[in-house]
Specification:
Blueprint: H1 3-17, H2 21-34, H3 39-51, H4 55-68, H5 73-85, H6 89-101, H7 111-144, H8 148-161, H9 194-199, H10 201-214, E1 220-221, E2 243-247, E3 249-250, E4 253-254, H11 256-261, H12 263-270, E5 284-289, E6 293-298, E7 305-313, E8 318-322, E9 325-328, E10 335-337, E11 343-347, E12 353-361, H13 367-384
Antiparallel strand pairs: 1-2, 2-5, 3-4, 5-12, 6-11, 7-10, 7-12, 8-9, 8-11
């Protein structure tokens, strides 16, 4: 905004404050004649036009603002309020959603604007609920004809399109295999071995009790980075016993003494299609999370394998989020999830939380693809001289 336009805009604001809307509009026309790129003058013009019930003129001024700055929050919010004012409820709700997506933090807003924002949230939330109810009712017959897994995908499809559930995105730190679906928690039907695996919960708990009693010193901090490495979200848990693990494999090879001592656990895992990659996998461990400890949001290394949790000790207050879905563990009830989708865990209880964690191949991979993946990873490690850790 040039200096003349700035002065004229200030004069117009004074006239607006005094209730002289006609005079303010005249001065704003002069300001825009001096500088048509003045966003402030166009916003004030929209406000004046709105107060003078010139709705077309107000929308025209807002259009000028959005031509200059397509994400201007104040213009987007004003557009939503005017659509609501003229009875365009559904377009207004959608416009509020766009404005809210571009809103600054609440603490940066003045009190009148914050009240409008809070109203916009209510309008948009009601619109989303009403739209969801309508869509679900219309699609109910079709969804009932789907399998359980299909019905779950339809439900998530609706939530994603309502923007109430984030799109699950795979973000493996190392290996991304194309064509595999991004599914947060997989359906049980995909894993015919899951029920038999769960039936071994008590024998595995017996093995765990022995390990806790006799091998307490072998439960090592799960996060073990050198201090010179970027620790990011892991700084608090690095080398901390608050999250520890008792591993059954090291660099993909069984730790013979532990495997021999706990045959029930190894027998249960033997029924699983564990990923097999030289020096990397299988992997399996007892994972211990101490009370009032949070595992921060993170992603795993490779999407060609999935992760299995079998809860063995689960106090109240334990939760687990993968992508947009949060669940509570239940003793002896396993699930399979994609750890390359952002996930995090909480133990807000007063006792330790323990589970058996292991990996399995993604069920959509053929035997030939599994073999080829293993060769690619092994060749990459060989060329780089990499000595991998315990996990893929």
């Amino acid at each position: 905004m040039n200096e003349q336009a700035m002065k004229l805009n200030r004069v117009a604001m004074e006239r607006m404050a005094a209730g002289d809307l006609e005079g303010a509009e005249t001065v704003l026309q002069q300001a825009l004649g001096a500088d048509r790129s003045s966003i402030g003058a166009w916003l004030n013009m929209a406000a004046v036009k709105r107060q003078r019930n010139d709705i077309d003129g107000a929308f025209g001024a807002i259009k000028e603002v959005l031509t200059l700055d397509g994400r201007n929050f104040h213009a987007l919010l004003m557009s939503a309020t005017m659509l609501e004012r003229i009875g365009q409820q559904k377009p207004a709700a959608a416009a509020y959603g766009i404005a809210l997506a571009n809103a600054p933090p609440d603490r940066a807003l003045d009190a009148p604007t914050l009240r409008v924002v809070q109203h916009g949230r209510d309008v948009h939330a009601k619109h989303t609920r009403d739209l969801g109810d309508f869509v679900r009712a219309e699609a109910a017959d079709a969804a009932r004809n789907c399998s359980a897994a299909g019905r779950r995908r339809v439900e998530t499809f609706i939530d994603i399109n309502l923007r109430t559930h984030p799109r699950p995105v795979q973000l493996p730190s190392d290996y991304f295999y194309p064509g595999l679906p991004a599914i947060e928690f997989w359906e049980r039907e995909e894993f015919p071995w899951l029920s038999e695996f769960e039936s071994a919960t008590q024998p595995i708990q017996d093995d765990l009790a022995i390990a806790l009693r006799e091998d307490e010193g072998d439960f090592a901090p799960y996060i073990q980075y050198s201090e010179h490495m970027p620790l990011d979200q892991w700084r608090e848990l690095n080398h901390s016993p608050r999250w520890s693990a008792y591993h059954f494999y090291r660099a993909g090879r069984p730790i013979e003494e532990r495997c021999a001592r706990f045959p029930a656990t190894l027998a249960a895992m033997a029924k699983l299609p564990q990923a097999e990659l030289p020096l990397r996998s299988p992997c399996a461990m007892f994972s211990v999370l101490k009370p009032h400890t949070r595992i921060p949001a993170h992603t795993g290394v490779a999407n060609f394998r999935l992760v299995v949790h079998l809860p063995l000790v689960v106090p109240a207050g334990c939760r687990f989020r993968v992508g947009g879905e949060t669940r509570e563990w239940r003793l002896g009830e396993a699930w399979v999830f994609d750890d390359t989708i952002e996930h995090e865990a909480w133990n807000d209880g007063d006792e330790i939380r323990i589970m058996l964690i292991c990996d399995v191949w993604n069920p959509q991979l053929s035997a030939e693809e599994r073999f080829a993946i293993a060769r690619v990873v092994a060749a990459t490690d060989a060329y780089n001289g990499t000595v991998p850790g315990n996990h893929v």
